[in-house]
Amino acid sequence: RAGFDCGLSETHIVPIMVGNEIAAYQMQRLLFDRGFAVNAVPHPAVHQGTERLRVSVTARHTHEQLQQFIIAVIEVGRQVGVLPARK
Length: 87
Hints:
There is one protein chain. By secondary structure, this protein is an alpha+beta fold. It has helices at residues 21-33, 63-80; strands spanning 13-17, 39-41, 52-56. The mean pLDDT is 93.
């Protein structure tokens, strides 16, 4: 609902499409600084323009942790310009 494309993944690995390498690395760093470990996946590992974050969700993550991550990824996405600023 925030505007991210998370692909059609049906596994515990969820892509968050970012669309460019610099933004993916910026988001990775900002999320790490908030305590979340995600991986940026740049070109040439994926087609140029489809750079993304790779998020691994496990049964050990609590509902609260997932909610905190969702809030953080939305805020960080807005900060780096991947999502529009809140109106």
